[in-house]
Amino acid sequence: MPNLKDKVSIFKALSDPNRLRILKMLQIRDLCVCEITEVLGLAPSTVSKHLSVLRDAGFINEEKDGKWVNYMLNTKPSDPASASLMSMMHVLLEDVEMIKKDRKAVQTVDRATLCK
Fold first, then answer.
1. Taking the alpha carbons of 72, 78, 79, 84 in that order, is the dihedral positive or negative?
2. Are 77 and 58 in contact, with CB atoms under 8 Å apart?
3. Domains of the chain, earliest start first
4. Which DSSP letter does residue 93 get?
């Protein structure tokens, strides 16, 4: 049975602007760390930490694909609170300028040139 600590981790995961940006980017398509790093302009280690927080909270999944690890939204979170919040993410932040810029950047980043 979930406890308060489990619920707090969900909200902590959403309390960072870069993690919200990552979730919004993953609504567009699956991405690897190097693509997310390029869009956010952060160190790969920082992006990896953000991804592990989002994964541990049940918001994203990862899947190995050759030399890459693809990150994608978890379309079926086991926690009802996470599922509810994920359904709201599709409308939240759509009018934020940074999210609009990220959306354009995600469409142009290419792992083949970034992850050499």
1. positive
2. yes
3. 4-111 (1.10.10.10)
4. T
